[in-house]
Amino acid sequence: MSALRRRQWSVVLALAPALLLIGTLFLVPLLRLAQLSITDRYPEPSELFTLANYLEAVSRPFHRNSLITSLKLATIVTLITLVLGYPLAFFLVRSTSRYKAIVLLAIISPLLISVVVRSIGWLILLGREGVVNQLFQALQLIQEPRQLLFNFTAVVIGEVNILLPFMVLSISTSLSQIPASLEEAAAVMGAGTFRQFAYITLPLSAPGLISGSVIVFVLTMGSYVTPQMLGGGKVNVITTDIYSRVMVDFEWPMGSALAIITLLCTISVVLLMNRVQTRMLGGLARGEL
Amino acid sequence: MEKPVVSAIAQPLATSKKRRLRVLNAYAMAMAFLSALPLLILIPVSLNPLPMVGFPEGGLSFAWYAKVFHSTNFPEAFLTSCFVGLMSTTISLIAGSLAAWALTRSRFHGISAIEAFLLSPLLLARIIYGIAMLIVLTQIGLIRTTLGLVIAHAVIVMPYVVRIIGGTLIGINRSLEEAAAVLGASQSRIFVFVTLPLLRPGLISAAVFGFITSFDEFTMTIFLVGAHTKTLPVEIFRYAELIVDPAVAAASVMLILGTLLGIALLEKTLGLEKVLKA
User: Fold this and answer.
1) B91–A246 CB contact, under 8 Å
2) CB distance B131 to A242 below 8 Å
3) What fold, for B63-277?
């Protein structure tokens, strides 16, 4: 009995530091953020409960447009990483190439190497005097150097580069769980490459595909460095908007409200995709897909 | 009788499969090259003898690397980043591995809720957490201090530690711990003399991954730094806002080389893929 007691105590003690850390330095700040978003000004609020910030966020075209641009960016980046990432995941799971390790390292390096450094690389590549312009001029594809930076496309390129590994790892986890014998069986029964893929590989990798999409979407919604550095102030997304409100205009309550709106948007997307996944997997179990 | 039939089917299958794999290999190599290109381009640029962002013409020069050390704020920022990384990793390593041990070695009501709570910082966009910490650190007077950075980074790093260590703990053969218990060892002795040594690869991986995560953190950190507590990524960002020159490329190349060292260490201990998928 006392041994059991001691064991229980040791579990409580082991959990205590982590719970304290996350409780006081994560949960409390978030609650404080939510609270600040419903006040009218900082530091001395005259109103402790007002929805004015939220109303302004959805009614003022600037905030609304930056939110829409963010959602558009996240959708486009998700679709592109999906299309580019699927074959890569397939390569990582199935290929016996001896260059596999190098490909893996190159593809997943954005997970570990600073996004700021990577963005500087893109600035050098896509700049007016940059390598891509020089190359195109040398090949006489263009006469005058073009500004390839500071627009929506540049931001999409940068984001895809950074978020591709999340999609690839997610899909490859799913793919690696499909037994090769299933496809072999289908091949022996006379199914062509396309049918094997459409009826076996694709449906069975759907969970990885969906979770990868959710991760990429959420991370794009929250990304700041790439839109700021490659958008150069010309691409306004919700995160650059939040940064300006908080660090330039010092409108903390407004910035907090925009942050909470971003959070709610991402949560709804995650819940929606969860539902899609449950439905699809339910259909799969019944043999509908 | 059967043999020719099988090979008749298998032969064309094998060749078409081979062709498809070759296309796939070529695609993967091309994507790997494109992915690495923004990093690779920094190397020739940093060696350019002229203050131009382009391929060096007429010789290579390490002058920009010297400039990084002598006439920029990068060394100071590097030290700040190292200090914040070491401190926050130490805090989260202690709190995180204890929590991971409790979560994997006991069963009680609400355990999954506690796990979800401890991992929740992973799900929140860093920019949102950045503002939340800006508000709270301002209130308690720790804004723009290294201590403020350390505690904020510890919150970011800890969930990764819980996952990596938790994953390693699940992989450890429980019967070794049970054997020690049967022989009369107390919980704490089992932890120190049995579990901890078996945990070593996980601990090293978690420490390296935690340090890299803290070292690279930008989106939250930019809300919390002061003029003299800038971390390296923030300093590089501020520099690049004004000018992109070979000096910033040189600093970036050094940062990449340092990170590659960490990646090699991860590959040696738990294995890179395992750490990233934890």
Assistant:
1) no
2) yes
3) MetI-like fold (1.10.3720)
Q: How far apart are CA B217 and CA B133, in angstroms?
A: 14
Q: Does B203 touch chain A (CB under 8 A)?
A: no
Tens digits of residue pLDDT in A38-76: 998 888 788 888 899 999 998 999 999 999 999 999 999
Query: CB neighbours of A37 closer than 8 A, spacing ≥ 6?
Result: A53, A54, A253, A256, A257, A259, A260
B106 and chain A: CB distance < 8 Å anywhere?
yes
* DSSP structural state of residue B172: S
The answer to whether residues A241 and A206 touch, using CB atoms and an 8 Å cutoff, is no
Residue in chain B nearest A15 by alpha carbon: B99
**How many CA atoms does the CB half-sphere of A140 hold within 13 Å?**
0
Q: Which residue has the tokens 């506690």?
A: B114
| Model pLDDT, residue B2 | 45
Quote the minimal CA–CA distance from B155 to chain A in Å.
6
The pTM is what? 0.91
B258 in contact with A at a CB cutoff of 8 Å?
no
What domains can you pick out in chain A, each with its CATH number? 51-285 (1.10.3720.10)
Q: DSSP per residue over A97-114, as a string?
A: -TTHHHHHHHHHGGGTS-
Q: Does B187 touch chain A (CB under 8 A)?
A: yes
Around B271, how many Cα atoms within 13 Å sit in the side-chain half-sphere? 8
Cα–Cα distance list, B158 to A31, A74, A208, B77, B150 (Å): 20, 27, 25, 23, 12
**HSE, side-chain direction, 13 A CA sphere, residue A273:** 21
Residues in chain A: 289
**Worst-scoring range by mean pLDDT, A185-189, B53-57, B252-256?**
B53-57
Measured over the CA atoms of residue B55, residue B57, residue B59 and residue B61, the dihedral's sign is negative
User: How many angstroms separate the CA atoms of B145 and B164, rounded?
Assistant: 29
